[in-house]
Request: fold
Amino acid sequence: AQKVTQAQTEISVVEKEDVTLDCVYETRDTTYYLFWYKQPPSGELVFLIRRNSFDEQNEISGRYSWNFQKSTSSFNFTITASQVVDSAVYFCAPFERGGDDKIIFGKGTRLHILP
Amino acid sequence: DTAVSQTPKYLVTQMGNDKSIKCEQNLGHDTMYWYKQDSKKFLKIMFSYNNKELIINETVPNRFSPKSPDKAHLNLHINSLELGDSAVYFCASSHRQGGGTEAFFGQGTRLTVV
Reply:
């Protein structure tokens, strides 16, 4: 069965520190897609990135970077030089295929950036 | 322009009442979803519709009835509300096209049943 794990329930770091959020996705599929979403205190769900399983190149967008390693089923997200505005719940969300295609969500990691 | 909009944003109602949440998307997507987020922030899919056809019904009580009048709208009607229905409900949309495309979410409707 497919399974997404965000082992870190809650993380607190001081502003300007780097922080990495872990995600492990276990599946037998050879082709799959993974997303990260951010949910700030205001409550909306904001799409951050989409990666597919056949592209293991790291992606960088400003202070955000994503490291996808198919061999370890990990899709980690790093925030460099964190800011208070990065405080949010971050969800790793694989796209689960099988007729009723759908995005499933990990339990989320609550990130606190302390001033 | 709002891409996925849902109304109302907040809904407080008494047990036993019937209520509806509306959702509209202007992204031209063919698939729409309802997700429920509980108090622990766990997000779980409830329904999805593709071109007005029900695709996913994730063992949701039949007090919940989605309705999709057209591709751009997916409403959620809830009968005989119970305390356990209190949650944030999110509508979302995406292109299905074999899967793998991101979904865009509405701002959520916080439902409180008292």
Remarks:
- Chain A touches chain B at residues 32-33, 35, 37, 39, 43-45, 47, 50, 52, 89, 91, 95, 97, 100-105, 107-108, 110 (CB under 8 Å).
